[in-house]
Amino acid sequence: RALLAIDRGDYANGTVQLSEALDLAERFWGDDHPEVAMIQGQLAEQAEHDDPERSVALFTRAIDMLRRVYSGPHPDLASTINNYAVFNLDRGRFEDARTGFEEALDMQRQVYDQPGTLEAIILNNLGRYHAARGDNAEALRLWRRSFELHRQIFGDTHEETSNMRINLGVALRLNGELDRAETLLNEALENIRAVFGENHRRVAAIYNNLGKVAQDRGDLEQATAHYERAVEIFRAIELPTADLANTLQNLATLADRRGDAAAAESLYLEALDALTMAGRDEGPEAARLYNNLSVTKFLSKDFDQAAEWSRRALAIFERIQEPGSADRLRTRRILARALEEQSLYAEAAPLMRENIEACKTAWGDDAEACARHVVTLDRLYEKWPEGASASR
Fold it and tell me: What is the DSSP string of 180-192?
């Protein structure tokens, strides 16, 4: 019941039922049992956004238990290590994520002679790691391999293959290969619709991604049509989800591009309401919405409110992500810009100094990603020379 609730986007109810399942499993089997460990791992995934410390504790307990129970490589252990690595990747702990993915992949290959579903999933996640590090070529190579494995295992039209088709389509869009991305997404749409019908959240999610392809082409009318169709389906389901919030956010960005700040703000706030009702108002999705609201207010020259939205975003990211994560770096920079426009240089400069230090720690001293933060700090010091003198 918990997994069905999670699959349809009812994360709050899914988490409650997983907690009940864990309590029953511990009473029935005791603490040292693989079924208990697997439920702990599933619960850790659901607690990721709202209570990351609990996630760490649950993942650690599950992995330690599985190592004791199996005393060697096992697919359950590999799967849980992979899921913990995804958690670390989402928090910006890149090296911990890479180490976990590689251990899980090696373990999977020790257990099975032939590549299987778990290997395809791990390769997909390794692709996410390389994309986060800016190595798009390696990310695409891994995503293509994952997609081909799914086709070999499940066939061309299976739901799991379609999910990987969507992932590859998204990756190709981010790489600028819009025609190929659109083809894959339309193929996935046909297959998923054949299995679940039109009014299903996965169908809506594909329309959302097709909207992004159209938006990247500059076809804002088609993008709006895709986004509005996705919202229509999500509302027909009558269950607010993070996917609905994401689609409303995309509609808001189009309103921003049209210069309609009032419409954009209204859509962003509606997206926040959807996240709140879905129990995700303290996760990264909400924080990114706060950031977008900040940018909208910044462009409207309401710098005080822009700073307030950024502070809300930063409070969430500081709780759930590492200092060098892309989200934390971006949020501090947005906040610093809003403070700079109010001539609050003494508050803005420390944010940028923190950004530079965190960026170099996470990405290396010569990383191009850190250059924009150096430029922002230099501009602040040009306006505030006494701050530059004090920092030296």
Answer: HHHHHHHHHHHHH
Q: Dump the DSSP string for 143-158.
A: HHHHHHHHHHHH-SSS
Task: Output the CA–CA distances (angstroms, integers) from residue 298 to 265, 335, 381, in the order listed.
Answer: 12, 10, 21
Nearest alpha carbon to residue 10 among 293, 328, 278, 386: 278
Task: Of 104, 42, 94, give the one whose Cα is nearest residue 67.
Answer: 104
Are 180 and 147 within 8 A, CB to CB? no
- Tokens 């997404």 sit on residue: 185
Torsion over CA: 150, 38, 90, 85 (sign): negative
CA 285 to chain centre: 8
Rg (CA), the chain: 22
Q: Which amino acid is at 373?
A: H
Q: Which helix (H) or strand (E) holds 22?
A: helix 11-29
Q: What is the 3-state secondary structure (H, E, C) of 351-389?
A: HHHHHHHHHHHHHCCCCHHHHHHHHHHHHHHHHCHHHHH
The angle, 0 to 180 degrees and rounded to 10, between the axes of the packed helices 94-111 and 75-90 is 160
- The pair of structure tokens assigned to 47 is 């607690």
pTM: 0.76
Per residue in 207-237, pLDDT (tens digit) is 999 999 999 999 999 999 999 999 999 888 8
Give the model's pLDDT for residue 6.
63
Is 134 in contact with 363 (CB distance < 8 Å)?
no
Cα angle 141-144-147, degrees, rounded to a multiple of 5: 150
